[in-house]
Amino acid sequence: xxxIFGIPIQAFAGQLLIGxxxxxxxxxxxxxxxxxxxxxxxxxxxxxxxxxxxxxAAWMLLDRLGIGYWWSLLLAPxxxxxxxxxxxxxxxxxxYQLDHLYGLLLxxxxxxxxxxxxxxxxxxxxxPYRLPPEFSGAFNLGFMxxxxxxxxxxxxxxxxxxxxxxxxxxxxxxxxxxxATENPTVVQAFGVNVPRMITLTYGIGVGLAALAGVMxxxxxxxxxxxxxxxxxxxxxxxxxxxxxxxxxxxxTGFGLGVIEGLTKVFYPEASNTVIFVIMVxxxxxxxxxxFGKEK
Length: 295
Prior knowledge:
By secondary structure, the protein is mainly α. It has one domain (18-123, 148-285): ABC transporter involved in vitamin B12 uptake, BtuC (Orthogonal Bundle), CATH 1.10.3470. It contains eleven helices and four strands, in the order ββααααββααααααα. Helix 2 (47-65) crosses helix 3 (69-90) and helix 2 (47-65) packs parallel to helix 4.
């Protein structure tokens, strides 16, 4: 049996795949957080709950209305993103001139309320989501079988992340968004409706979280706690990559997922803490994060 560093290749490749899957969700969620923080200066602690709501939206569309996975990829992010726009207009817009702490406290409280409502309605046990029939089976790579759906998740998350980066960093719309965070008065003088742009940006960030929830539904059980279990790790990913850095969130999300997966092979006891150890080291050496800008 072929081995890598004394580890059977099947075990090594399996944990590498799990790391890539986790990294896909870390990247997508941290990307949404980075978009919201970088352009709105709001630390959105509701992000985990919005990820959970995306998964529940997909489950309810299938269970109650018979609407399958592909339509859920479109409808759930739109619905949860629209809910995010309502939250931004009615609550968050009042906090932009205040300290970041107020936004964090508000979104943290909202996350607890949303999670409590879903727990009261659906209970704490998870709901299964049927795997789309197109993704049944696996690819035979010779040394392991790669489930088709997991391969799809990695590829799709890469496409979503890189497309978002391109729009924000390489298009005219993205230049307006970035300029609005630096000098909204000048941007408004060019006829751009800055408040509407900010609102839509928050909605897009929330939609990214909901999209990740839909993609996670067939892999993990849909439960009210699924966002709470993930959001702390995702915040660590954002801090390591650099608060507000789009590319930092993408690279760090995938990279830390792989590191976490490989840690389970070589030193399983540290797999739950390795990301936080890396965060401490990065903050000691480079407080702004790996891709963040030093002020």
